[in-house]
């Protein structure tokens, strides 16, 4: 089993298996390039694959192949177990998160998810919606810290809808609280008010330990980046936000080296499109993080580029692209698999501590973009328009052509 996904007092992004690197031998492959072949001992991890719905299966298939190849070059092998979640699970078991899926996920070293949801299940009752399965999975794995990086790759600066000078060099990380707040708060439900009107209601609520632990993850993250943390709330209106700000300020005393600022969410939404380069790390609650991370993704050119990692204090992490199931293009080989491929890199880095294998994937994605391959969502003239599968094949070529870094 992998170690804890998140080591708060250790570096989040540090390899967890230092000193356990496999030894390598180098040999020429058939085309004469230097390849490395891992010898003993090889590391083995169990990964639960949750393709889900819509474009999920297409992007998971690409990401799994990339994960396998990049990891094999570092002497890592996987046992994959594919399980049902979301609409796919509803259709065959009647539940959006069958018990077997959660238990397989809990017993594995990391979980890679595609996407969930689709028109077919939109009218289902709440407890039978695919989205409910995803929320149950996050809660079941207790992955409270959701890291959503938004990085503008130089190759894609033209794909952004923002002006080049605004978008270029943006590199920010949204740390979203994932298992609390209004998504899970009680009381919630439907009722009738004193005027006999039907109502729907939810509760935004955060307890001390929930804010403290996500704040620590955010401070640790900022510390390893450019040392700036912006906490986003609505403390001019909401009690839950006033309390959020109070706890973030209390935790700040543990991190005197990190520069902390606070911003109201409406202003943050505006600043993200006005001057996104002012942000390094953003920490925010579940619902603001949901919204701001979609907004941040568009700075990078496409939501099809953004990966995410969801981590808990221990146990396997959950890795998923931030885009949805895109039912309008499902099954047409049009999806951009790069967000899922980059999620597989996050799985290696944050979930397994296999930073070298993660770097192989990140470098391969950049190389593929540099060679001009683009899916429709990031296409600009002069580039080569490809489908999901072909993009995957090109990324594999880029992984394959990398000369291994000396050990
Ligand atoms: C996300 C999604 C989910 C969320 C939905 C599908 C439940 O929008 O991961 O951002 O709201 O968290
Ligand atoms: Mg969302």
Summed up:
This protein has about 400 residues and is of the alpha/beta class.
User: What is the end-to-end distance?
Assistant: 25 Å
The Cα radius of gyration reads 21 Å
Q: Name the hetero compounds present.
A: 3-isopropylmalic acid, magnesium ion
- Biggest sheet architecture: 10 strands, mixed
Principal-axis shape: globular
Strand content: 15-25%
Low-confidence stretches: 1-40
By helix and strand content, what is the structural category? alpha/beta
Side by side, the strands of the main sheet go 4-3-5-14-13-6-7-12-10-11
Give the helix proportion (percent range).
Answer: 25-40%
Series of H and E elements = EEEHEHHEHEHEEEHEHEHEHEEHHEEH
Mean pLDDT: 90
Using DSSP, what is the number of strands? 16
Q: How large is the count of helical segments?
A: 12
């Amino acid at each position: 089993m992998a170690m804890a996904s998140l080591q708060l007092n250790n570096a989040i992004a540090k390899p967890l298996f230092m000193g356990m690197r496999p030894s390598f031998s180098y040999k020429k492959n058939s085309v004469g390039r230097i390849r490395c072949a891992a010898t003993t001992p090889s590391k083995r991890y169990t990964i639960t694959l949750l393709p889900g719905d819509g474009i999920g299966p297409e992007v998971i298939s690409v990401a799994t192949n990339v994960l396998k190849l990049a990891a094999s070059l570092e002497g890592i092998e996987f046992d994959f177990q594919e399980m049902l979640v979301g609409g796919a699970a509803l259709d065959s078991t009647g539940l959006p998160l069958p018990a077997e899926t959660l238990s397989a996920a809990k017993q594995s070293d990391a979980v890679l998810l595609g996407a969930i949801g689709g028109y077919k299940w939109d009218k289902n009752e709440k407890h039978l919606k695919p989205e409910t399965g995803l929320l149950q999975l996050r809660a079941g794995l207790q992955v409270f810290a959701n890291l959503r990086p938004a990085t503008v790759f130089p190759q894609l600066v033209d794909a952004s809808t923002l002006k080049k000078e605004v978008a270029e060099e943006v590199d920010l990380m949204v740390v979203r609280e994932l298992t609390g707040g209004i998504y899970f708060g009680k009381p919630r439900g439907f009722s009738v008010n004193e005027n006999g009107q039907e109502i729907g209601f939810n509760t935004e609520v955060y307890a001390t330990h929930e804010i403290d632990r996500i704040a620590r993850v955010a401070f640790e993250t900022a510390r390893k980046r450019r040392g700036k943390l912006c906490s986003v709330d609505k403390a001019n209106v909401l009690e839950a936000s006033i309390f959020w700000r109070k706890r973030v300020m209390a935790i700040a005393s543990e991190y005197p080296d990190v520069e902390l600022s606070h911003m109201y969410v409406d202003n943050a939404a505006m600043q993200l499109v006005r001057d996104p380069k002012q942000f390094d790390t953003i920490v925010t609650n579940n619902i603001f993080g949901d919204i701001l991370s979609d907004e941040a993704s568009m700075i990078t050119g496409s939501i099809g580029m953004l990966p995410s990692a969801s981590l808990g204090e221990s146990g396997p992490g959950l890795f998923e692209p931030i885009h949805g199931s895109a039912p309008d293009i499902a099954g047409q080989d049009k999806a951009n698999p790069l967000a899922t491929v980059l999620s597989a890199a996050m799985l290696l880095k944050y979930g397994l501590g296999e930073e070298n294998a993660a770097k192989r994937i990140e470098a391969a994605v950049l190389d593929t973009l540099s060679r001009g391959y683009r899916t429709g969502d990031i296409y600009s003239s002069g580039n080569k328009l490809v489908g999901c599968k072909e993009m995957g094949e090109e990324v594999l070529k880029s992984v394959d052509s990398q000369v291994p870094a000396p050990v």
